[in-house]
C-alpha cells in the first residue's frame, strides 16, 4: 500500500451554519469562492444529493494561461449542515472523467480525490467548516493543493457574509 498525504484546512466564519451550507450547495455562492486567488468559477452545476454529481469549472487568470479546468464532485454522503463527502475527479466541459495528466496536473494527484467537509455551529451566528482531501502521493502536489484550499477558504469567509 502506498502512503498518501492529506490536505486539511478549516475556517471560522461570521455566518450561520445554514449560510455556510449554502456556500457548498448553491451555484451563485460557489462561484464567489471556488478557486484560489486570481481564479474564478464560471460554471457550477450543482446536484448535491447522495449519488449526485456536480460539475464545476475553475478559470485560471491570464498569467496562468486563462484556461478553464473542470472537475466533478460525486457525492457519497450528504448530511445537510453537518457533513458532505464527495470524490473530486478531473473532467471535460461535458463532465466526462479524464486523468489528472490529461487535465495538465502533475504527478502525485490521485485519479479521484476524496473530500470530507464538516460543518460546526459555534454559536452567536458563527460557524466552522473543515475540509480534508486525501490521496496525494507527492509532497509538492499536496503542498500546492494545500495553498489552493487555504485561499479558497479565505474567499469563502468573504462570500458568506
Descriptive tags:
7 strands; Alpha-D-Glucose-1,6-Bisphosphate, Chain A, domain 4; 161 residues; 3 helices
Task: Give me the secondary-structure topology.
Blueprint: E1 5-13, H1 17-25, H2 27-33, E2 40-45, E3 53-59, E4 68-79, E5 83-91, E6 112-123, E7 126-136, H3 139-159
Antiparallel strand pairs: 1-7, 2-3, 3-4, 4-5, 5-6, 6-7
Number of strands: 7
Q: Write down the overall mean pLDDT.
A: 95
The geometry reads as globular
- What's the gyration radius in Å? 15 Å
- So, CATH architecture? 2-Layer Sandwich
Structural class from helices and strands? alpha+beta
Low-confidence segments: none
Can you list the strand order of the major beta sheet?
1-7-6-5-4-3-2
Number of helices: 3
- Strand fraction equals 35-45%
**Total number of domains:** 1
Could you give the distance between the termini? 43 Å
Helix content: 10-25%
CATH topology descriptor = Alpha-D-Glucose-1,6-Bisphosphate, Chain A, domain 4
Order of helices and strands: EHHEEEEEEH
CATH C-level label: Alpha Beta
CATH homology superfamily name? START domain
Largest sheet: 7 strands, antiparallel
Structure description:
With 161 residues, the chain is of the alpha+beta class. It has one domain: Alpha-D-Glucose-1,6-Bisphosphate, Chain A, domain 4 (2-Layer Sandwich). 23% of the residues lie in helices and 41% in strands. The chain contains three helices and seven strands. A seven-stranded antiparallel β-sheet has the order 1-7-6-5-4-3-2. It is globular, with a radius of gyration of 15 Å.
